[in-house]
Design a protein that fits this description.
By secondary structure, the protein is mainly beta. It is built from no helices and eleven strands.
């Protein structure tokens, strides 16, 4: 994961600068898999969130991969939950970190999906651009911004 990349982009003749996120998959996956990811754009207080609830292989050994990570882009501090203490539902990601419950709620603003079919592959990927509200169960003000929600289930 590279959640805090400097970005320079030329779009329709305009030079834009910002922050970007990149991830790369590698490993032995399948033949069945399913995952949910939420990756934020830049949040207030220079924070970046990325969280997942994923199973990249069912069977022995199972390839379960859950995470909930909140990066402070200024200090480099990374707050994260143990894999067993984080999960996702349709429009939210949850984590328990040091006894405090974090909730990342998303509100889809737009979506698109694609079916990947060919050979043994039959997976449906859904991508959603969302409003994000990240609450920390300590009464502090929630962080609000935008996030990308990617979900995919099927066979490879």
């Amino acid at each position: 994961h590279r959640p805090d990349m400097d970005l320079e982009l030329t779009f329709r003749g305009k030079e834009l600068k910002g922050k970007g996120y990149s991830k790369r998959y590698y490993g032995e996956y399948g033949p069945h898999w399913g995952y949910r990811f939420i990756q934020s754009s830049h949040l207030p207080d220079n924070k970046f969130l990325w969280t997942a609830d994923a199973t990249f292989r069912i069977g022995e050994p199972e390839a379960k991969y859950n995470y909930f990570k909140l990066l402070d882009g200024e200090t480099g501090e990374l707050v994260q939950a143990p894999s067993v203490d984080t999960y996702q539902q349709d429009c939210a990601g949850y984590a328990y970190i040091d006894g405090v419950k974090y909730v990342a709620e998303i509100e889809p603003l737009g979506q698109w999906q694609h079916d990947y079919k060919g050979g043994d592959t039959n997976s449906r990927m859904q991508l959603r651009y969302c409003k994000l509200k990240l609450s920390k169960g300590d009464g502090s003000k929630p962080l609000e911004g935008y996030a990308f929600n990617e979900r995919c289930f099927g066979a490879l």
